[in-house]
Amino acid sequence: LEKEAAKVEGFEVGVQKPSYYVRLGSLSSKVRTRAYQQALNKVRDAKQKSQETISQLHHTVSLIEYARKNMNSANQKLLDAQEKLYQSWVEWKKNTGQNDDDELHSAEHIESRTLAIARNLTQQLQTTCLTLVSSLQGLPQHVQDRVYSVGSMAGDVYQSFRSASSFQELSDSFLTTSKGQLKKMKESLDDVMDYLVNNTPLNWLVGPFYPQLPGIQHAESNGEGERNSSQKDKQPERTTE
Fold it and tell me: Where is this region: Disordered (predicted)?
């Protein structure tokens, strides 16, 4: 792919490590197919990561809703809500590789931990969306706007969680709206993937490609010459009649 892409004029060179991107339509049909699949896989991975984060966020918001509804109940439901939130915290710590020995079960600690999870997940989603946007350069604007909207909605949700210090500061309407936004985020990512699977956008900037150093190319050329020479030496002599 790198050799084919290097033939295209006007490629973009990176600042630190020499690299370049090319339009998908500038490549030969054979190389275009390979480059398209590589770019598609990159987007698919980012989409999967984003949707996993969205699912975790949806679960966290649902737990907060459940806890808020039973916050004033001196019964088993309140204990169930606290236990679910605590288990969510334990699971999140395990997945993020954190070693926190503070195992306090107080309501205040559980709430602050859950809010920390929500803030962390929304930040993750924003970061993944930025990565995804960088992989969609050259696509139609309406496709790129889909991903921009996901990042924007994630930012709105993050700001609300960031300003809250307890569940009491999160209104029912905010939680309901957040779940609706999470659903829209998932649908937007599905739409982007559907577009790429069903279309081959020739203006899509694919890469990065990394040009070979002249010294390496020279060594490879010499090696190729030696191999050709060796093969000639091994060929049997032809007899003439």
Answer: 215-241
The verdict on residue 161 lying in a domain is yes
- Residues 194-221: tens digit of each pLDDT: 999 999 999 999 888 777 655 444 444 4
Write the CB contacts of 44 (distance below 8 Å, at least 6 apart in sequence).
193
The boundaries of the domain holding residue 98 are 31-202
User: In angstroms, rounded to a whole number, what is the distance separating the alpha carbons of residues 68 and 55?
Assistant: 20
Distance CA(172)–CA(232), nearest Å, equals 81
Q: How confident is the model at residue 13 (pLDDT cuts 50, 70, 90)?
A: very low
Q: Is residue 209 part of a domain?
A: no
Query: Rounded mean pLDDT of 60-88?
Result: 71
Phi, psi dihedral angles at 139 (to 5 degrees): -80, 160
Q: Give the CA distances from residue 224 to residues 72, 139, 143, 221, 231, in Å, rounded to whole numbers and listed in that order.
A: 79, 40, 45, 5, 11
Q: How many Å apart are CA 33 and CA 147, to the nearest integer?
A: 24
Where is pLDDT greater, at 209 or 35? 35
pTM of the entire predicted model = 0.72
- 191 is a domain residue: yes
**What's the average model confidence in pLDDT over 170-193?**
93
Q: Work out the percent of the chain whose per-residue pLDDT is above 70.
A: 66
Q: How far apart are CA 180 and CA 183, in angstroms?
A: 5
Q: Which helix (H) or strand (E) holds 159?
A: helix 141-163
Does the residue 120 lie in any domain?
A: yes
DSSP string, 102-153: -----HHHHHHHHHHHHHHHHHHHHHHHHHHHHT-TTS-HHHHHHHHHHHHH
